[in-house]
Design a protein that fits this description.
Blueprint: E1 7-16, E2 27-36, E3 42-51, H1 56-71, E4 79-84, H2 87-102, H3 115-125, E5 129-134, H4 142-157, E6 165-166, H5 169-178
Parallel strand pairs: 1-4, 4-5
Antiparallel strand pairs: 1-2, 2-3, 3-6
Amino acid sequence: MSARFPLVAVYADESCLGNGKAGDNPGGAGVLVEYQHADGRITRRDLWISEKATTNNRMALRSVSEAFGGLGAKDGRFSVHFTTDSRYIVDGLSSWVFGWARNGWKRKTGAIENLELWKNAIASVHGHEATWNWVKGHAGHPQNEYANDLAVRAATEQTQSGGYVESAFDTWLAARRAKGGARSAVAPFPDRDTFKAAASLPRVG
């Protein structure tokens, strides 16, 4: 099954400074979006957000809702190849949410943590089709490393991009490689003819 809509590649990552420690821990999320033109050129855009007191999981969920919310800002519909190093996101949107929905948004072991953020993330995906892909973090993958840097900077400086903005990926990559970082090749743009969308997410009330 090929992509039904214009195909985009999304790389998302999250950061929480002091995650799990007592007190208010600032966090951020970073998103890199790639779009391939007919002539093979790649256009990239960046997005980042921050919270003063949060967790890694909260910011991972917000990376989904902000990424898809930005894509659909003008009623656009996209086939989204979404890549993250968060198993929380990949496993949750590939598996967990379907059981929660069947059980009335409950689980046997107790309340669902971050339920409203899960519902926000799911709602943001409706209208698009997506595939959920995991990549090992901090392993030299250029697009993942860049999204991580966006997230850490947002957490540290408590800044917001205010939507998608022109990307600084190329400049960042050149500087990182000059210092011996981001050693792996830039991940190629996904093939729209082999794109296989994941199951449609459940409806949320």
